[in-house]
Design a protein that fits this description.
By secondary structure, chain A is an all-alpha fold. Chain A has a single domain, classed as Up-down Bundle (Methane Monooxygenase Hydroxylase, Chain G, domain 1), CATH 1.20.58.220. Chain A is 83% helix and 0% strand. Chain A starts with a helix and ends in a 14-residue tail after the last helix. Chain B has 4 domains: 106 residues; 86 residues, PAS domain (Beta-Lactamase, 2-Layer Sandwich); 72 residues, Signal transduction histidine kinase, dimerisation/phosphotransfer (DHp) domain (Helix Hairpins, Orthogonal Bundle); 148 residues, Histidine kinase-like ATPase, C-terminal domain (Heat Shock Protein 90, 2-Layer Sandwich). A 5-stranded antiparallel β-sheet of chain B has the order 2-1-5-4-3, with helices on both faces. Chain B has a 5-stranded mixed β-sheet with strand order 7-9-10-12-11. In chain B, helix 8 packs parallel to helix 9 and helix 9 packs antiparallel against helix 12. The longest helix of chain B is centred in the first third of the chain and has 45 residues. Chains A and B meet through helix 1 of A and helix 5 of B.
């Protein structure tokens, strides 16, 4: 009887882990699609991204429900308890990433109404970096690799730096050609969304470190970035 | 072995019997007195000693044989290709029977192992050979099999048998199907950007599941091309027909007598009938090319001469638009081609270049000797073709900018005819990325050396 219960418990934990990882990968895909809708001025794709955000919201509800059910029926302890409390925070961050990707798609729809901006500011570099970090954070989560997660935390500095420089470039664009302000403003929002995505990814990585090592690395000074 | 022990026991028993007979003889010859009674006790002790010794010998012999058989059996269990040796043992002996059964089991296990290994090799070569991706997981969602096609489609580098699937694949639909209870099929977008049909077969071996992945990217793309073609061909044909009908109706209603409108409407009739004829001629060319009925006769064609011939066809239009055409082709360069087809190709490419470059723009024709092939380039300094259109411009009726190209009088079929003709002559054709500064179409044809 006991072994049957523990088998069921293991299965629930596994399902929870899979749901978290696939929810994360959904968010990852959403960022890529939103950036493509922006780059290719594709209204249909942008609307698809906005619509697909619902799947991420649904994931959040499902995962919350499953985590609470495990808490209530199994009374987990130690690493299992850490994993479940972590998953409750994890979904919040991933759900926010999904919202921000949908936000990028909404800005894309606005920009598609306006003539294309002849600008060399390339937000894709920032998006690629954010996506790469999210991917690495999810890898660290499924492989329970605290070292990899720590790497993701320190990589966020790069995102902040790139965001600042892109933001300055966009503002400079408006300064030289004030007429472009209506087209540059949505782009500054996209820039900010990507930076926020980076922050949520950093949270995810911190949660992974907590889950694996049982140490809280939030609100600590960052390790020095490599030169 | 036991047989031998038994025979030794017989000998011992005989010896005991002999000792007992001797004792009896001694007792009977000496009569029964006190002295002889103590002698009798001695004889008894002797018999007991002999019995003990014979028992010990028997035990040692049996144990040694048993140990030997046990050792050999252990070796067989470790390596089923070995056998228990049957040397020095007579048939029918119990230990020999035991050894024979062990050997029989070993042979059976050996056969099963070979069959199993063969099946494994067969399964893996089938799995690796097929174009469908196969994912098999056990009840704990650990990977049992992830074939080459699946690894390629999912972007997995290693062969992670025994690892958890979630560590390598994070496609939500995959897990939804594994969790579900029924056989089902869904179409999904893979992280690599390709589209695939994901099918889950029924459970196997308890909780395990097998998933099949089929790449449908090309199929979907072709379906789109076909759908676009049908939509486009009807649109392209309907437009001139509508104009012809409207003009004819107006003329019939009395406009024929109108000195201003009459000639205008008739001109419209003429232009649209011409356009219809052009589209139909192009479509016929294409269908003949498709059916392989377009007969091409390959011969040595000097590139310079054929380019100049093609130029005569587009020069009036170039002059009208103020476009300068610059030809830089060496005299001696020649290709193996059908002269009529190559002329048609060059006219098409030059016509496009002249049409789509800006007014008073430039068109260049240049060649490059690439050894076995000659590359002919037609370049213009127009607005260029955006990346997303570049790979589709050779599709029938595909237009990068539909309003402009129809206005310029194109049928939307020229480039697909160019592609077909070039490929039928063993060549290739393509367009260089050049947006936003001009377009370069190139074609490569086999070089003629003689």
């Amino acid at each position: 009887m006991t072994s049957l219960t523990s088998k069921e418990f293991d299965q629930e934990l596994r399902t929870l882990r899979e749901k978290l990882a696939t929810m994360g990968s959904r968010a990852e895909e959403q960022i890529a699609l939103a950036m493509r809708a922006l780059g290719e001025r594709d209204d249909e794709l942008a609307r698809h991204v906005i619509n697909a955000d619902k799947a991420i919201d649904r994931d959040e509800n499902d995962i919350d429900e499953l985590a609470l059910q495990i808490l209530a029926t199994r009374q987990p302890v130690a690493s299992d308890l850490r994993f479940i409390t972590m998953s409750l925070k994890f979904v919040v961050d991933v759900e926010r990433i999904g919202d921000l990707a949908a936000g990028i798609a909404k800005r894309a729809l606005e920009l598609n109404r306006l003539p294309p901006l002849d600008s060399k500011v390339d937000l894709n570099r920032l998006a690629t970096l954010a996506q790469k970090n999210l991917h690495a954070a999810l890898d660290a989560f499924v492989k329970k690799d605290a070292d990899a997660a720590t790497g993701v935390i320190s990589a966020d500095v790069e995102i902040d730096r790139l965001n600042a420089s892109l933001f300055a470039e966009l503002i400079a664009h408006v300064a030289t050609d004030p007429a472009t302000v209506t087209r540059v403003l949505p782009l500054t929002s996209v820039c900010r969304y990507l930076e926020r995505i980076g922050d949520h990814v950093k949270n995810l990585a911190e949660e992974v470190v907590y889950m694996v090592r049982a140490t809280d690395v939030r609100h600590r000074p960052l390790p020095k970035p490599p030169n | 072995m036991i047989q031998r022990v038994r025979s030794r026991l017989y000998l011992l028993s005989l010896a005991l019997a002999a000792v007992a007979t001797l004792t009896a003889a001694v007792v009977s010859t000496h009569g029964l007195d006190v002295d002889s009674l103590s002698g009798f006790a001695w004889v008894g002790l002797l018999v007991l000693a002999v019995a003990l010794v014979s028992g010990l010998v028997t035990l040692t012999l049996v144990r040694r044989s048993m140990r030997e058989v046990a050792d050999q059996t252990r070796n067989v269990v470790r390596d089923t290709s070995r056998r228990v040796s049957l040397l020095d043992v007579e048939a029918g002996d119990e230990l020999r029977q035991l050894a024979e059964w062990v050997n029989f089991l070993a042979e059976d296990a050996d056969r099963s192992h070979t069959a199993l290994a063969r099946e494994r090799v067969l399964l893996s070569s089938v799995a690796e050979g097929i174009t469908q991706g196969v994912i098999a997981v056990d009840g704990e969602h650990r990977i049992e099999l992830l074939n080459d096609a699946a690894r390629r489609m999912l972007g997995v580098q290693s062969t992670p048998v025994g690892e958890l699937l979630i560590e390598f694949v994070r496609v939500p639909a995959v897990f939804e199907l594994i969790e579900g209870n029924d056989a089902a099929t869904v179409e999904i977008q893979l992280p690599t950007g390709r589209r695939a049909l994901l099918r889950v077969a029924n459970r196997w071996g308890g909780q395990g599941r097998v998933l099949l992945l089929e790449d449908v990217t090309t199929v979907r793309k072709l379906e789109n091309v076909r759908r676009d073609f049908v939509a486009n061909v009807s649109h392209e044909l309907r437009t001139p027909v509508a104009v012809i009908r409207a003009n004819a109706e107006t003329l019939l209603a009395g406009a024929a007598a109108d000195p201003v409108m009459g000639p205008k409407l008739i001109d419209g009739l003429h232009r649209n009938a011409e356009r219809l004829a052009r589209i139909i001629a192009d479509l016929l060319d294409l269908s003949r090319l498709d059916a392989g009925q377009y007969r091409l006769e390959l011969a040595r064609v000097p590139v310079k001469a054929i380019t100049e011939q093609a130029l005569t066809g587009v020069e009036p239009q170039a002059t009208a638009r103020g476009v300068t055409i610059d030809v830089q082709v060496p005299d001696e360069l020649a290709v193996m081609a059908d002269p009529k087809a190559l002329d048609q190709i060059l006219v098409n490419l030059l016509d496009n270049a002249v049409k789509y470059t800006k007014a008073t723009g430039h068109v260049w024709v240049a060649t490059k000797d690439e050894g076995s092939h000659v590359r002919i380039e037609v370049r213009d300094d127009g607005p260029g073709i955006a990346d997303k259109h570049r790979e589709r411009v050779f599709e029938r009726f595909y237009r990068a900018d539909s309003s402009r190209s129809r206005e310029a009088g194109g049928t939307g079929l020229g480039l697909s005819i160019v592609k077909h003709l070039t490929e039928s002559m063993g060549g290739s054709v393509g367009v260089e990325p050049g947006s936003p500064s001009g377009t370069t179409f190139w074609l490569k044809l086999p070089r003629s050396h003689t």
